[in-house]
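Why do we care about 3D structure at all? Because function follows from shape, and shape follows, mostly, from sequence. That is the central idea of this module. The next example makes it concrete: a single protein chain, its amino acid sequence, and then its structure expressed as tokens.
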Amino acid sequence: MLLAIDIGNTNLTIGIFDQEELIGSFRLTTNIPRTSNEFGKDIFEGIDGLNIEPEQINDVIISSVVPKVMYSLVSSIKKYFHKEPYIVGKGTKSGIKIALSNPAQTGADRIVDAVGAYETYGGPVIVIDYGTATTYDLVTEDGSFVAGVTCPGVKICAKALWSSAAQLPEIEIKRPDTILAKDTISSMQAGIVFGTVGETEYIINRIKKESGLENVKVVATGGLGRIIHQETDLIDHYDINLTLHGMRIIYKKTIDAIKKSMAKEERGN
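And the structure:
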């Protein structure tokens, strides 16, 4: 089995794959400082809750946009699973060409999302991730990652609203019954949800117009993406596990490349 760990700014999402099947997943909070022992304990508890034994984990892959947690996490993987984890980064066999002005600045999360969307749904494709930031990335038919848009995430916008205005309360982010709000809470919900829908539709249409790819597919992921997907016809697919599947695909490509290299060396000898 493969243990896939996606480290975002808000959550660690951990999935376990048996071949291509995601058999379970769970989350940990990123902003809680943890030692390697604490990481090991939390991950062991999570996989135990899925009725999986640690000995069943054959390999581990990590995608991270939070460098400060990596030392403790990698140490815990080595200590508790006795594995050297594969880390998505420079040299990763993704099958995606990063055709940006500075490829090194492209976050691992955006790479794995691009791989997951391209390999699962084909290209050209716009990949939207409603995470801490909301990102829109364009992958062409030949698998080139050619452009990206970064916006404040839905929760960041909501938090800025109630943190900066003394009389506005902290609210649950959900779709109100109508945009014709008659109270403070529903008016905030309308602004946050329908405002994000408007942003989404404008950016998708602008990307289509400037790229000339009018028939591009649109795939969304991220926890709050489900709400937005239900409010617009411009998102073709919502895939909550897109990032984890992207990591699984990268792992397989990496293993296949290693096997190919080893076979070539053996033939050379």
